[in-house]
Amino acid sequence: MTIREALSLLRKELSAPLGCFAQPQSEEILQFLFNCSRSELFLSSDRSLTEYQKDQLFHILKRRLKGEPLAYILGKTFFYSREFKVSKSTLIPRPDTEILVEQVLLNEKQDKARFVDIGIGSGIISTVLTEERPQWRALGIDISFDTLKVAKQNISKAVQLLCSDLLSALKSSEFDFLVSNPPYISGNEMNVLDPEVKDFEPHLALYGGSDGLYFYRKLASEAGKVLKKNGRLYCEIGYNQQDSVMEIFMDAGWEDLKITRDLSGHPRVLRAVLRKVWMTQ
Length: 281
What we know:
It is a single chain. This protein has two domains: 3-66; 91-274, Vaccinia Virus protein VP39 (Rossmann fold). It is 40% helix and 20% strand. It is of the alpha/beta class. Helix 1 packs parallel to helix 4 (51-65) and helix 6 runs parallel beside helix 7.
């Protein structure tokens, strides 16, 4: 079986469940098997697969046809033009989260900064930010030790990791800003998620309480204890949560609230500033 024939087979098998995504995912599978770029793949279309590669191909295809996301099968995915390791302990990065990264880079102009990444997951946000700003330093927090093991494979020395339930392990006001892509799927929304998400991605990283707002309430009330004066918060929000999230943060004393929309026009990122001094409860 040549690469050309393998590509045709994969595209045919995947076209029904994936539609227009069958072609790019077929190419991605073969790039993985040959450890090559897309251009190299097509320049070598007459190259034959080894018996081992054919076995791998059919094993990957079988799992993909059962609905398992390709990122989990291959153990990696791309975000912000970078490759990241992922596992079933981590969410698969979405393009919408690039809006969160871009808002931080747009607003935080200082050469040096310390920030905390709540729910670091696979480490994509902290990794990109510290690579784009080499003098920035991050503390990545997650409640899942398995998730942190994946993050450790992606991050650089500029990012430290801590296993903690949100901010419970931190005491002092030492960070310039906080960034988070928290779980924000409500109970009703969990029931109607796409099967590829509902059946394979970690519910711990998806479910945001019955109304989807649990973690925003926690961040609004507790983030001040780890931020310096006039500390900033950046977090991703659900497409239908703008009014509720803004009310939560305004009630908690945050100011200068700003919502940035994604490419589809949906509210996606909240930026807020806490000017008051946080008082120990």
